[in-house]
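Before the break, one more example. Copy the sequence into your notebook; we will annotate it together after we see the structure.
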Amino acid sequence: MILAMDTSTDLCSIIVIANEKTKSKIKTHLKQVHAEKIIFMIEQALGNINKTINDISSVAISIGPGSFTGLRIGLSVAKGLCYALGKPLITVPTLDAMAESVFNICSLISKYNKTEIYICPMLNAKQNDFYYSIYRFNENKIERIDEYQIGTADDLKRQLKGKTILLGDAVEFVAENFYNQDDIILFGEEFNYPDAYYVAKIARKKYENGEFADLNSTEPLYIKEFVVKTKEI
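Here is what the structure looks like once it is written out:
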């Protein structure tokens, strides 16, 4: 049984899966409450199925990119649980999990359209920048074909090629750059935020392969430099 969490954006989600099936899921979309609510949400998710934290086999966390604060909180909680329980930690890049969320859609499209399908998950990095990467749906699997990176809408536009699914909380900021382009596919809000379910889906494969993170050295995948801001006195 895997406990998976995503705290990379304003939306915080917790899920428990076993045997590839969702057993319990909790999520909130309130800003700046991750530190306050995450432990309660974990307890609630486990309590809904009459389980305790001792019943889990591993902890999975969305490692970034995303909100610096959210990533630090999520990883700190995940590490703390793993240290206390002696359980392995599994990290999943946020953009990988977002790309996984459109797997079924890509499968459907590919049945009727034999052209290659690309996926570009993106997250708002503030100051007109966006975190993103590019993936390709190929032979019934999703593979990343570019680096995790940060750039502007123009940077992104120069890199896209072919029929591409754009998704993420930054889509609304860049949609006008791709208006009336037949090869760009946009979806509704339900696809535009990271979800712990897809973190868990990838984590299950990593668990089976023994792909565990090192508790001592693992850090969030920030992409851009993390700067601590202090108030002037």
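DSSP finds seven helices and twelve strands in the chain. The longest helix spans residues 68-85. Try to locate both features in your own notes.
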